[in-house]
Amino acid sequence: MTNQNNHTSALHEKDGVQQPESISKASIAQITKLRRKQPTADDLVNGILEGNKTMLSRAITLIESTNANHLEKANKVIADCLPHANKSVRIGITGVPGVGKSTFIEAFGKHLTEKGHKVAVLAVDPSSSLSHGSILGDKTRMEELVKDENAYIRPSASGDTLGGVARKTRESIILCEACGFDVIIIETVGVGQSETAVHSMVDFFLLLKIAGAGDELQGIKRGIMEMADLIVINKADGDNIKKAKLAKTEFNRALHLFPAKNSGWQPKVTTCSAITKDGIDDVWKITSDYFNLAKSNNYFEAKRAEQNRYWLTETINEQLKNSFYSQEGIAPLLKQYQEAVQNHELSPFIAAQTLLKKYFENLER
Ligand SMILES: Nc1nc2c(ncn2[C@@H]2O[C@H](COP(=O)(O)OP(=O)(O)OP(=O)(O)O)[C@@H](O)[C@H]2O)c(=O)[nH]1
Ligand SMILES: [Mg+2]
């Protein structure tokens, strides 16, 4: 093979190197055609309703896009999927790094798909934009689930505020449900506000813990304990079993001190090992007991309705905020006013009023 252009390019292939035969020309053409052709909103919706995970992923990418041109299409996809959504249970899982969330979700998810469920795993992790590492880790921690035809795993949206990530995850839930997933697991890391955001989009909240060296309750934020419907003490295997049982007693005692929940549910504590799978079945049994109770006393429906109202307000707040802070000219002005306020030259309220006035004037122009 002689390449006439060799002298103009620093790159050239060695003579005799050919495409491997395993790549057929037809499939290359098919792939390039698909890549080039952006699916329409209807293509995406039809694909999702047929249970096509590739279309689901593409639609979620569209939702996550920060390109303003994608917004309208994303909204159409969500609107068309909405009538097919809602038929699921949504479970939030939280726990500090290393507690075994990924390993637990792998074991729990497999348990559920073996029972005939379709499981989608989404994440709310606003820090993932900084540390893409966890996604890589999860590929190995969730080896079986990743390959499972009845499971779908999607890492957290990144490069956004917590509010932004949370909204996108919530919209992704709708698409996953329309795609036929009936158990939605939302994972989050124990960082500040992300639990609150996840709590506001799930039906059931599970706190993963490990047995420590005694004083179990230390270091848990009261708010997180209050949110939990179930505390699972993971890594109850080998020498840890005894410690896990002790921790279970201690948590049970603590949970009884909290006021009763509106759901009528008394939060539970159980132990499991995500590695040996002992106790995984109990976690699902307890979770199902909760759903039976909450559906029979209508709490389930009432909570979802309340969450919808919450998201309406949240989305408005988030978008108004974004609109304000991203408006051209606001950032330098804000910086100037911040300095003036810091130096006591201007009252923060007057500064805010002036900035907002400027913002509204710009809108009208
Ligand atoms: N012995 C034992 N080890 C476990 C168990 N579950 C998880 N591990 C181990 O604990 C470590 C952390 O597990 P991960 O599943 O990555 O924990 P994670 O909570 O997802 O961690 P981050 O993604 O960093 O937040 C790994 O080395 C796991 O093998 C368990 O039930 N028993
Ligand atoms: Mg993990």
TrEMBL record:
Gene Ontology molecular function terms on file: kinase activity
Coiled-coil zones: none
Entries under InterPro entries matching the protein: AAA+_ATPase, GTPase_ArgK, P-loop_NTPase
Recorded superkingdom: Bacteria
Pfam families cross-referenced by the UniProt entry: MeaB
Membership in a protein family: Belongs to the SIMIBI class G3E GTPase family. ArgK/MeaB subfamily.
This protein's name: ATPase/protein kinase
